[in-house]
């Protein structure tokens, strides 16, 4: 007989998770104000990435201008993954509160990481995204694989496939692993080769 958590059709407890946000901005002031709002809403930041130039797409240039920067923030409070839709709606509200003449000065993309995966919330539907509620979709952006790293999928945003983002999320996973007392409960079957 299989252990309870592996029985077909059995309900397992939610995964441990930590919330993070990816921010795009031009002005450092926009970043700092956004950071304060996020900390007020979601609790203390445990780590922040360094700032780097975001040149993966022209998608935000019309709205935000040139010289777009990127930073990530990981929050210290354990995160209930069922709240990701509400979290995305809250960050959208923050974006519009900080807008200037109807244009956003910051783009805030929330997601969460678990020991097995990184999930992003978005308002954009596509074939690989799952509808949650209230116009919000979710996608598994990265999966943790044998060998010790998060790996991208076919539709993973380019900036999540490279250096700063993957290094930041790997650090976040290490923190989550410490918070769960080193209990990496991923079964070997859960890890892809």
Key structural traits:
193 residues, alpha+beta, 4 helices, disordered C terminus
Tell me the overall shape.
globular
**Terminus-to-terminus distance:** 26 Å
pLDDT average, as an integer? Answer: 86
Output the radius of gyration. Answer: 17 Å
Number of strands: 9
State the domain count. Answer: 1
Q: Spell the H/E element sequence.
A: EHEEHEHEEEEEH
Structural class assignment: alpha+beta
Q: Would you identify the regions where 5 or more consecutive residues have pLDDT less than 50?
A: 186-193
**Total of helices:** 4
The helix fraction, in percent, is: 25-40%
Largest sheet features: 9 strands, antiparallel
**Percent range for β-strand residues:** 25-35%
If you had to describe this structure to a student in words, what would you say it looks like?
- Helices cover 26% and strands 29% of the residues.
- A hairpin with a 3-residue loop joins β8 and β9.
- The protein has one domain (17-179).
- With 193 residues, it is an alpha+beta fold.
- Strands 1, 2, 3, 4, 5, 6, 7, 8 and 9 form a nine-stranded antiparallel sheet that branches.
- The chain contains four helices and nine strands; from the N terminus they run βαββαβαβββββα.
- The protein has helices at residues 28-42, 61-64, 84-97, 163-179; strands at residues 18-25, 45-48, 52-53, 69-78, 106-113, 117-122, 130-133, 136-145, 149-152.
- The longest helix is centred in the C-terminal third of the chain and has 17 residues, at 163-179.
- It is globular, with a radius of gyration of 17 Å.
């Amino acid at each position: 007989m299989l252990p309870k958590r592996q029985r077909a059709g059995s309900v397992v407890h939610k995964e441990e998770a930590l919330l993070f946000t990816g921010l795009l901005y031009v002005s450092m002031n926009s970043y700092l104000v956004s950071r304060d709002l996020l900390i007020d809403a979601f609790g203390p930041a445990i780590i922040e990435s360094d700032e780097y130039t975001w040149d993966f797409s022209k998608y935000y240039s019309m709205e935000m201008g040139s010289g777009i920067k990127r930073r990530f923030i990981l929050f210290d409070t354990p995160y209930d993954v069922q709240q990701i839709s509400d979290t995305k709606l809250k960050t959208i509200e923050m974006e519009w509160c900080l807008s200037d003449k109807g244009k956003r000065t910051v783009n805030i993309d929330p997601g969460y990481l678990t020991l097995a995966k990184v999930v992003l919330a978005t308002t954009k539907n596509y074939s690989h995204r799952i509808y949650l509620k209230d116009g919000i979709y979710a996608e598994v952006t990265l999966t943790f694989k044998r060998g010790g790293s998060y790996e991208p999928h076919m539709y993973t945003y380019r900036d999540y496939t490279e250096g700063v983002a993957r290094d930041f999320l790997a650090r976040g996973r290490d923190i989550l692993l410490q918070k769960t007392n080193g209990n990496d409960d991923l079964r070997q079957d859960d890890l892809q080769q």
